[in-house]
Each structure stands twice: as C-alpha cells, then as structure tokens.
Amino acid sequence: MNLSLRQLEAFAAIARWRNLTRAAEQIHITQAGLSLMLRDMEAQLDCRLFERTTRSVSLTQGGERLLPLAERTLRDFREVADQLSQLSADAARTVHLAATPLVAADVLPQACHELARTHPDIRVVVKDVDRRQIQPMVERGEVDVGVGVLLRESPTTTRELLLRLPLVAVGARGALTAALNGRGTLSWAALRALPLPLLALPADNAIQQLVDARLAPALPREDRPVFAHLHTLIAMAEAGQGVAVLPAFVASTCRRYAVDVHRMGQPMVAMEFFSIARRGAPLTPAAAPLLRALVQHLGRSAAGAT
C-alpha cells in the first residue's frame, strides 16, 4: 500500500464538500484527475469509500472509518511542515562563526554591532576557539564559517580571501618614536636595531612565521620571550617588556592599552585574512552580510594604525 498525502487530501476534500466538482476546484485538480486518485485509493484499500450517484456523494462505512485518520494525518503534517518552515527561516537568519579569542572579543563585537543596524534580523553565534580548532569545526559542520589569518583549504573546505592586513609594531608609549621614519612607519631594519627584545608567538604560529621570514637570521629565536596569546603580547609591550609585530586587526584591541601602534614598512608586508567554509555546502544567507561588516570594520581599524 502506498497512499500519498495528495490522495488523503483529495479524499478529505470530497468528504467535506460531498461534491466532486467543488472538491476538485479546492485542491486545484481536474475532476477526472480527482476521480482517478479516488479509484486508486479504493483499489489499494480494497474498499469503496463513497457511494456515488448522479446527484450525491456520501461516505461509506469504510470512508467514515478512514476520514478521522486522514484529517488527523493532514493536520499533523501541516503543523510539522509549518514548524520546519520556521526552522528553515530561522536557520537562514543565523550564522555560526568560529574565530580566535582576540578576533572574537575585539573585532567581531563591533562588526556585529554594525551588522545589527543594517540587518537587525540576523543572529550571529560566535565560537571563540584556538586557531587550530577553526578548520576542524568547519569540517565537522559545527560552524558555518571560520575566519582568521592564513587559513588553508583542504579536500573538504574552501576559503575566500577577505582582505590583506598590514603588519604593525606594538610598543609601550613612546618606545618606538625615535625609530620611526618620516612617514610614521617602522622599517624592518629599525626594528632589528631596537634595544627592546622582540615579543614572539610560538614558532609554529602563522603570524610568527611571516615575521620570522622577514627578520631572519637577524634575531635569534632563543632570545625572544614567547607567549601563546596576542593579548599577552600586547600587555607585555605595554609593560615595556619588548615590541610585538602583529596583524593590523589588533589595532582596536590596542586602544585599551597604553601602547603605540605603527605600521611596518620598507617593505610593506601584508597578512591575508580569510573566511573558510565547508566545500559544497551552501552558506546561510546571513553569512555574506556578516563577512561584509567584518571586512569593513577590519579595513577601518587597519587604516587607523599610523
């Protein structure tokens, strides 16, 4: 037996109107098509459902038994379909995003604030995680998108370049002033000549690898204080313990510290900031406006670094 919801709908319409023509009009089918569905139902059930004459249509005993079940099934299905439609609508307005703690704490809040002004119906769920967790979370479908520097594609993910961010030097107030050039930037040669130590991230960190590639072999790694978190480097720079070279997205964070932030130059070195998503999985419509707001905020923040 293979009765369809369409057949149950046709049966219920005939029972309601007791007229094939009006029932066919209600469910938007021809009277011939309605009669064919009814005959197929009766053949599958091996039971007549209606007594039909030239003037009337009435339920048989079997039809009377089937009608409550058909109406309940149709009602339950419509309720669940409405719930699923609401879930789909909610999902389309929600984006789950993974980012490192500094980006999650100091960049995304402002981007989300700006997004709320233009898209108040969008809900953003932020997961602040270690940078090494971002890609696995995207691959497992725990988040819709991840953002960060130097994220890599994999067989199950794809990435999009959002923008290129300059590197900036972060030091205690006044500590970098004498080393600045006429454009207010700090050259790599001047950085090497500073009496302050270079505050570093772990050697496997993509940010540190980019800095090391520019400085090597001038500054031995073993002489550097190493910290795992960007907030720690900024706080140590504020305390006069050294100078940190970081992507410009830290500029908004640095405003809460007594530090100076200056662009690195001669040559300018940029760090790529990506979004990453599951390959073949369409992004929720809420993701694109969020990423645009994030890029706009990052661009303004980077432009504010002298």
TrEMBL record:
Family named by the database record: Belongs to the LysR transcriptional regulatory family.
Single Gene Ontology MF annotation: DNA-binding transcription factor activity
One annotated Gene Ontology cellular component of this protein: cytosol
Protein name: LysR family transcriptional regulator
UniProt-listed InterPro entries: HTH-type_LysR_regulators (IPR050950), LysR_HTH_N (IPR000847), LysR_subst-bd (IPR005119), WH-like_DNA-bd_sf (IPR036388), WH_DNA-bd_sf (IPR036390)
Source taxonomy: Bacteria, Pseudomonadati, Pseudomonadota, Betaproteobacteria, Burkholderiales
Any Pfam family the entry gives: HTH_1
UniProt keyword list: DNA-binding, Transcription, Transcription regulation
Transcription is among the record's keywords: yes
UniProt keyword Transmembrane, yes or no: no
Domain HTH lysR-type, chain residue ranges per copy: 3-60
